[in-house]
Design goal:
By secondary structure, the chain is mostly helical. The longest helix is centred in the middle third of the chain and has 34 residues.
């Protein structure tokens, strides 16, 4: 990160670990957090690619029984800490009313628009 600052280049870090690595938060110019509800989370994960119906049912059950409870217990509180730490430099995309049909480019553009307001 320090080398990127000196060179003027950008570093984009993605993933759930970002919200728990406070040294990354301290070095960030801004953060974008995809803060969604259970239904949107499930729809986005199921919609990543076509699968047979029985596979989708297994994946949906896994999301609802494992992924979402883990996010609620660990991910959401970590996102809250990150948002508090970064203040206005943290954009929570739930406030932008994104839905499961949005592609990554749309999400990035929405975040940049929010930061420029």
């Amino acid at each position: 990160m320090a080398a990127a600052r000196i060179s003027g280049k950008s570093v984009i870090v993605e993933g759930h670990v970002v919200v728990t690595a406070l040294e990354l938060a301290d070095a960030a110019d801004f953060a974008v957090v995809l803060d969604e509800n259970e239904e949107t989370c499930c729809a986005r994960r199921l919609g990543r690619r076509a699968r047979p119906g029985d596979e989708n049912a297994i994946l949906e059950r896994y999301i609802r029984e494992v992924v979402w409870p883990a996010y609620s217990k660990y991910g959401c509180p970590a996102q809250d800490v990150l948002a508090t730490r970064l203040g206005p430099k943290c954009v929570r995309l739930s406030k932008l009313h994104l839905d499961a049909g949005h592609k990554p480019g749309v999400i990035v553009q929405a975040a940049l628009d929010a930061l420029n307001r």
